[in-house]
Predict the structure.
Amino acid sequence: MKENRLNKKKIINDPVFGFINLQSETVFDLLEHPFFQRLRRIKQLGLSYLVFPGANHTRFEHALGATHLMRQAIATLRLKGHLITEEEAEAVTIAILLHDIGHAPFSHVLENTLVNISHEEISLLLMQELNREFEGKLDLSILIFTNQYKKQFLHQLVASQLDMDRLDYLSRDSFFTGVAEGTIGIERIIKMLNVFEDKLVVDVKGIYSIEKFLISRRLMYWQVYLHKTVVAAEFLLINVLKRARELKDSGADLYTTPTLEIFLGNAFQPKDFRENIVVEGRNVLTWYTLLDDNDILIAIKEWQFHPDPVLSKLSHCLTNRKLLRIKLSDKALSRKEEEKYLKAIREKIMPDEKLATYFLMTGVITNSAYNKHDENIFVLNKDQTISELNEASDVNLSALSKAVRKHFVCYPKELDNY
Amino acid sequence: MKENRLNKKKIINDPVFGFINLQSETVFDLLEHPFFQRLRRIKQLGLSYLVFPGANHTRFEHALGATHLMRQAIATLRLKGHLITEEEAEAVTIAILLHDIGHAPFSHVLENTLVNISHEEISLLLMQELNREFEGKLDLSILIFTNQYKKQFLHQLVASQLDMDRLDYLSRDSFFTGVAEGTIGIERIIKMLNVFEDKLVVDVKGIYSIEKFLISRRLMYWQVYLHKTVVAAEFLLINVLKRARELKDSGADLYTTPTLEIFLGNAFQPKDFRENIVVEGRNVLTWYTLLDDNDILIAIKEWQFHPDPVLSKLSHCLTNRKLLRIKLSDKALSRKEEEKYLKAIREKIMPDEKLATYFLMTGVITNSAYNKHDENIFVLNKDQTISELNEASDVNLSALSKAVRKHFVCYPKELDNY
Amino acid sequence: MKENRLNKKKIINDPVFGFINLQSETVFDLLEHPFFQRLRRIKQLGLSYLVFPGANHTRFEHALGATHLMRQAIATLRLKGHLITEEEAEAVTIAILLHDIGHAPFSHVLENTLVNISHEEISLLLMQELNREFEGKLDLSILIFTNQYKKQFLHQLVASQLDMDRLDYLSRDSFFTGVAEGTIGIERIIKMLNVFEDKLVVDVKGIYSIEKFLISRRLMYWQVYLHKTVVAAEFLLINVLKRARELKDSGADLYTTPTLEIFLGNAFQPKDFRENIVVEGRNVLTWYTLLDDNDILIAIKEWQFHPDPVLSKLSHCLTNRKLLRIKLSDKALSRKEEEKYLKAIREKIMPDEKLATYFLMTGVITNSAYNKHDENIFVLNKDQTISELNEASDVNLSALSKAVRKHFVCYPKELDNY
Amino acid sequence: MKENRLNKKKIINDPVFGFINLQSETVFDLLEHPFFQRLRRIKQLGLSYLVFPGANHTRFEHALGATHLMRQAIATLRLKGHLITEEEAEAVTIAILLHDIGHAPFSHVLENTLVNISHEEISLLLMQELNREFEGKLDLSILIFTNQYKKQFLHQLVASQLDMDRLDYLSRDSFFTGVAEGTIGIERIIKMLNVFEDKLVVDVKGIYSIEKFLISRRLMYWQVYLHKTVVAAEFLLINVLKRARELKDSGADLYTTPTLEIFLGNAFQPKDFRENIVVEGRNVLTWYTLLDDNDILIAIKEWQFHPDPVLSKLSHCLTNRKLLRIKLSDKALSRKEEEKYLKAIREKIMPDEKLATYFLMTGVITNSAYNKHDENIFVLNKDQTISELNEASDVNLSALSKAVRKHFVCYPKELDNY
């Protein structure tokens, strides 16, 4: 039976990489855990499917793909003579498998609306929970994930400019959105990885591949991740939830799923998660692992019919893809322009002054959110010295990592030609 | 504004075919209709994502893809000298766009559990509804869809052995499941289409492509559509809903979403849909267009915690992918074997005799369900005669379209080694 | 230096499989040998590039690809518990690397025109020659190649219905001709390979992949390998060389390259190759390894301007792709029809009765030439018994391996509408 | 018959773009002309196949591919409202079909060794020749090719930073070398083309695609076109031909093919081509159209056995891929270092002082050769103004078009560890 399982079930078809071969029993057991299975119900790109109809892929697939790439990276580094023990290999593989386990539904959007804690922190709390269940088998994974392990390059395989997370998601998001240009030379980049003084570096002959990777990433930011229609949809979602919470706080009758009820009705703080407080008979982390995209989508579908004019209209727009107009600009909307928009909204859509503000959204988008690991990429020269990528390349790449900020304003279509 | 819309919004990124260019304003308006937008929330392959993690694609994408292929087929046939007017071209394009609009969530599974009407009939009812809204613009599409239009080959482009529906779904399902072998030579098959005496035929030089198409289809049946683990999941879902309805009928307290409530609480008959009766303030077709995959998945997630031991256990299994064992066989389970299974279930899982039966599922799977259009494929010879494919090919293809039936039994893992 | 070579040079870019990683020093040394480098100048598909402009790939690339697949097959079989020693792995890899080393230019065409010995026999003679040079390092490879080694399945990896030769060439020829439908599920087929009682078999769950492989192969025969325009070009080439030899035998002045001179001027017999006789200061095998596609193409280009009307006209046709018409039929040309063609040729092209026959070619094409290894494919059932594929599949596949014969006649375009 | 031809022969399988559909009879007739058929015997990437075994593709395929892209570009521009008459469309298609017709074998290498005239000038001379044969049908094509036609953007489709030539060759070379990273988003770039004030421009939303295109192009320069081993092979070829000419001039007996004989024996000047002088019974352009890769390769294969020690050794190296070592450096070899190399060569390989110099090659490689059209790329903003790409992009792209120069030295392997 056991053997059967080992041989058969661990080969998984993946549209992006072909066959994915899980090689460890612990990895397989973690995959089968409800915490991990939940990721099947969290879309990798949130609302982007409203613009890219194929972008229905989930964090489940992404975690599998990153695990697959980790195996390849380990093999490459071992071939170049770097010692990675079996135990370390398994630990770093588990770390990448679980790196996103704490993601909330639509998480880039909802992290500050629905839950006041970063998904990274939740990931760690869930890993610790799993570690208890798996009786310490994740000890080393957690050390690597939190960068407390002596071999720092293992952490960098999980979280850095060239981590397996990023290599997978760029490939995968490019694949499912159909933005073929986002493709990166993943096989070659991995073959070019190396370790120098405990740091993850790139062999100098891989420099053009890295340049291409950086340009592809930039293209994906602007063409997909920060696509303006996607941004418009995300801010619509934020306003829907803001209004829902407001109504709930005011005691209005509001349909929710049981799990969403918990999160709309309580404003949990990081401390609550860390202490894992009990609410309605379950502790908060358990509630969290029951929350997925469907809770949000089902609620919004129902809210179309809610008596509140703001909630119903915004929910109708989101469910049926009647998105807002969005305009990008280098500078923020002036107070005067904002007034002009609000006046129009009051005239055409919502006379109430306060409620009118729900139909105007302004803010800033920036690619820096996607650039968290902003440490440099290092290149290993043939003479066994290292250089920063910017020195090694004869193209000025610094611009590529520079944060770009764009101001936006979203407003209803009814204001067209106003 | 208008022009803006025409130029920009009608190019859609599709991972399978690249850019899809919608060329008609009516097609675009239909695409934006809530009836069609609902398809974004209906997975093309139901529960198959439990086996093929990438199979999260939806009927929305499939309908778009089939529309894209229809445009190519029209261009090919026109190039070969067959008259297709602009009006006919638009009508047949709309027919394929809307061919699946009546699909229920998990429809192959739920058609006989949740609703007692075929999705084809609902599709027609919804098209007629849309036709009223669009003031008769769908008249010709409906004639073609129902095969009442004089040029029969137009209907065959929508529904036949070589329709655009099938060409798209085989390609698309192969793409998203990662079963690369399912790939068919779609571009060549379309180039080989022709019309002879008002019938859709294939040029004789395309005969090998058709053979390959038939073999690929067969491979997809057994490797994907009838994959035994998928079948096990589907019968689990059927039993979950059967039990839920039973509990509801018996007056038990049962969480549902508002829309699911309507369908669990009423046993609508085809007549109810045809007459579009009003229930709880909305007519039944409107309720239907509010129902999607998420209603089912959310309910099942909650039912894990229901006091009924059958409902909670089965729901837990489905939500967390603890699927049943399944065995295929050429002959049905004997009465005696069945008894043996039930006895084991009573001992290990559910002492109650009646409830125990929920944990044993038997039945037959057959590829004939996927073979509805079983008319022959005709080949156009160089001398302008036609032959049936079977005569024209020197391989005996009749076996390929033969229905294959396999008996199965599903039972809980706890019975292993029993 | 040595290490440098091991690390760097052994990764080769292959358009079909990505990176090919040579893992053995002997394999690398054989690759660098002039005998093997010659394969760069022998096109894999002979004259097919006249129909498929991309088909310029060579036997060099094919041999590399097959070697790459062999490594994968070995890994799969080892994973399933079959013992393959390092020595055996290297030997079988070398056997596949060299399996085509004896190919003549345009070899399917010229084997009976220019040299009277099969390329398989030459391959063996050249392997023996290399073995002497490599001081016995190829002993085991030769045993495997000639099926004298105890583990028969190793031979089957090199030459059988499912050998790595065929898996590579079907993929590669499909890739370069652009006949995308020929694609086979190579990754999956290799994963399904197994060994049972020393015989190469296929796991039963791979049965649909094998069906698809057989259908793809059949499609490639008729769509590429036996494409009628390619056949017309090949018979043109045969007649050009036949006429050239005739002229040379008759003492006419005839341009050739030095190497072609040797083969046109001598009618070597297998015995001459086996004894490796000396001609014009070199032994015949050495002369053979100097002969490549370019010798033939250069001569024919020059022969366009030869005074002989047959040689010049046929050579002009081949060089400038003015190919003959070809008609396929189920039965041979009757004596009377042949006379009619010849009469027309005499009237329109070549009055001389004997020379006229050069412009009419008749014969038979059959896929059996591609079906040499006609032993059965065996399937390993789950109960550890084996069945023949035909029994195991519910499709009648015997037709697929049946030899199909088609008669053809080629004649000049000038006879159109005659 | 005619119709037959139109329907059947004009669809060509292309591995890169799928089916290529020739839509014009004149284009088809030009394709069948011996001048164009010759391109089948000229490899697109010269000796690069010695490093990238798949790079056997020819200028014939490239010209077809560029023609295919031209049709798409025309369709895009027409859709955006720019007038291109049928006559202009055919003319610009012919111009791109024939843009490379004057290429010599290994032309980047041999242009200054074998013929003293640029391939562009020969292309024009051959187009004029074809125009006479086609009775003026190419008049407009020639005007466009030479940029004398009023609509300048048509010329830019043939020759500019974003011409169809470049879009095809980058895709195609990336495809056949297996350097997957070179892939550019060709479909999207073409969709983003526009015309503004008679100039070919790019819609602003295509800016990231253009950035990616420039980076891919740069990657292809250094990873493929200027790959150092390819450079080493090219300089070997130059020295082989230099020595061969020297021997011929000195009256030595030297094997050549008849056509190569003409070019080695005469040092034709541009004037000779323009006046199309007669040599040995044919005019020089006719001789030129008889020269192809095979003439060079056959001669070098024979020269392995020539008594001259320089010619034979260098020819042996090239034929059997025993390439020279190459070192790149930022600065030129000093006189002293050069002396050191030459001393070693005299000691180890060739005592004769003058002949020794044949084994040392120094020079400069630069990407500027691939950057001939160095005019700017212009971006069309949404407000219908245009900007230079560098202003429009927030990345500094000027570095990408900057010429990079690297000095190299090639020397025989025997000098290793010297």
About this structure: The two ends of chain D are 70 Å apart (CA to CA).
